[in-house]
Amino acid sequence: MRDRLLIIGGVAAGLAAAMQARRRAPELDITVLEKSGDISYGACGLPYVISGLIPTLDQLRVHGPEYFRERYGIDLRLHSEALEILPAKSIVRVRAGGETGEVREEGYTRLVLASGAQAVCPPLPGHTLAGIFVMRHLCDGRRMLDYLERVGPRTAVVVGAGYIGLEMAQAFCERGLRTTIIEASHNVMSTLDGVLCERVAEELRAKGVEIIFGEKAAAFEGGAGRVERVLTETGRAVAADIVNIGVGVRPQSTLAASAGLETGESGAITTDAEQRTSVQNIYAAGDCCEVLHRVSGRRVWFPLGQPAVRQGWVAGENASGFEARYAGIVGTNVVKVFELELARTGLSLAEALASGFEADAIESETPSRASYYPGGSKILTRLVYDRSGRLLGAQMVGREGVAQRIDVYAAALHSNLKVDEIERLDLAYAPPYAPTIDPIQRAAHRAKLK
Amino acid sequence: MRDRLLIIGGVAAGLAAAMQARRRAPELDITVLEKSGDISYGACGLPYVISGLIPTLDQLRVHGPEYFRERYGIDLRLHSEALEILPAKSIVRVRAGGETGEVREEGYTRLVLASGAQAVCPPLPGHTLAGIFVMRHLCDGRRMLDYLERVGPRTAVVVGAGYIGLEMAQAFCERGLRTTIIEASHNVMSTLDGVLCERVAEELRAKGVEIIFGEKAAAFEGGAGRVERVLTETGRAVAADIVNIGVGVRPQSTLAASAGLETGESGAITTDAEQRTSVQNIYAAGDCCEVLHRVSGRRVWFPLGQPAVRQGWVAGENASGFEARYAGIVGTNVVKVFELELARTGLSLAEALASGFEADAIESETPSRASYYPGGSKILTRLVYDRSGRLLGAQMVGREGVAQRIDVYAAALHSNLKVDEIERLDLAYAPPYAPTIDPIQRAAHRAKLK
Prior knowledge:
2 copies of one chain form a homodimer.
Chain A: E1 4-8, H1 12-24, E2 29-33, H2 46-51, H3 65-72, E3 74-77, E4 80-86, E5 91-96, E6 103-107, E7 110-113, E8 117-119, E9 132-133, H4 138-151, E10 155-159, H5 163-174, E11 178-183, H6 196-206, E12 210-213, E13 217-223, E14 226-232, E15 237-239, E16 242-245, E17 249-251, H7 254-258, E18 282-284, E19 291-292, E20 299-300, H8 305-319, E21 333-337, E22 340-346, H9 349-354, E23 359-367, E24 378-386, E25 391-398, H10 402-414, H11 419-423, H12 439-449
Parallel strand pairs in A: 1-2, 1-7, 2-3, 7-18, 9-16, 10-11, 10-16, 11-12
Antiparallel strand pairs in A: 4-5, 5-6, 8-17, 13-14, 14-15, 19-20, 21-22, 22-25, 23-24, 24-25
Helix pairs in contact in A: 1-8
């Protein structure tokens, strides 16, 4: 019998693993089980379909199952849910064809778990009313679009001001809905610190989004089975013909934990640099597992698309008998909030202190272009560094040139550069793109002086 | 008597040196001699004043002499030309007040040479006709603007397709002049190689700029003392009511060489990492001196604004009795050619081979945003690397996201990263700004496979 690679999950990490395994092992039997009816799509594009910027949900699809079947000989099975892993027998119990489908056993030589993450939806009173959504999978987008078109809501509430919450608030606002964010903490984007959060809140308000800080959503109320308002814990009622819950995600690791795979503090699956789990012949990749944070040296849960694809490659490579290692993350991400680019890499000051660093932070605000060149704006940079001057993290917000500038700090973190080395980098200068001394260097200079 | 720091040159490097010395040494006598009547201006902005994008030349001025005098106690003397340096006596002979001015001796404890570079203007037949300009200093811009307004030219020729030539061609074109570039080689931007040059030529032609490759300008002809056409060496006549010569620059190092300061192959002044010249108590900084190229390990002449300012800081620091070192360059620059961003860092393939590397190159073309996100375009990347996989250089061209992406490669060069390490960087991803796997990483992946 041929060796068989079984992969649970057919979105980013799962398909990356399947494709990499196929590149390496032309003869391997590769089977991918996907619980839903959708594979290979850009989940990060969902808010832009809701806003109307991207006309149809289908544009987020990259490839259909036939592409993988016919072109790469990958057996891709939709509506196939893994119910149980039996490592001792190298078997997965799978229900095919939806909730009433038949349960069968699928054997494997090696298994890759790429079960992803799921949105957290707190079971508040009224949470089963129609019109309350999370936004994670293609089907979430499909359901929300249908509701928007069918019901025609005029007011929206977004619960939670994390990056998906911010993108959804913008999407509702751009669709013309009167939109309110309810955020339990006193800041947007818990992964940021300092005045950057304020800039984001200012931008949201300037675009007409209302923000209620420091209050939790406590209940949903409505009529005719549909949500009409959100009540906060202080009793405030906020009109909401539609609600998006963006309070966070959790790793889908129940299946793994039941099979005895080790999980970390975060609840996500523990892996080594080869993406091996604690159980032989089982690998994990993507949003269901922890990764090495190169700055803190800790294993953390950091569910994002780019690391997921890369871990998928590494898992696919190793699971097909070759060797690859995942270098880990430095915690880079970026989000667009209306006209603002908001990016971070490494640790925030709070995270650095919690990780045991003697850390400090500075902020620096500098123009994005030569002062005399029209159309520029200011970039606010916050750098976090330790006593030796080693960079620990960077956060940036501005109207242009942020999304790529953060990557220079990410590269600096990768190489363990100190702030005085960052100041000395030879960076590109031309009046339309940067001042003579780039904001990246200005901020490093300030950090060096302090 | 107080120690006296004398600085020759009052633009980028000279003023950076003066300011840094003042920060470090509040009591030091600091005198800056500037030959022209202009100091502290953004020379890189000149093409944008010519194009009309920046309404007046005055917007390029950063500070006037009184700013430096009153606020920092720096004695800034305009129209003061250094004629001779006498190191044995620690004296500079200076003519003040223009060509007929008085010659005086100025003593120094330490001297910083920041005499810059000058545009090369080949003495072709007819080169003294009115309407023929170089573009280097503020006064060049002033003269050209005056000519444009007074004479109202309708056709323009730019001789040389280096980055200033390209910017000037764009400026003329945007002013509505019928513009032709005459370039002796078969490519724009001699520092680029591969198909990137073709992309730039396509962009220029698409905007209506004609390009004549492989021919040299041989003579200028005209009537009533004004240029009317450029003749090429093959006898072609190109209509030209105005001409910009952009065939290159040369270091202004005659004064230094006459005083016995060592100069390199390029003719620019030799310095060490502290910006010391071969003669005691004399420092040099900016476009008049060579710098260490960190990739080739050679001392090269690379006259650009950002390195000039940084060398100025280092020279000012050391010349005031403190210690600083200039880390050298990796050869980064960027230029805007109409809607194209064109950037490079490190060595081109030709330069790498000439520097003795066993080098190879790949090209990679990838989208600037997620495929489904509207408004994206493609970025063409060329990477140069050696047999061990060490990155030696990168070149990029595209309509967005190039000017900052090149800086990630610059940081990678600074840290001597290999292409497989660059592939593993944790870079920012969001649909409006990048595909899941960034063009930076896609190109590195291709290089790794090869």
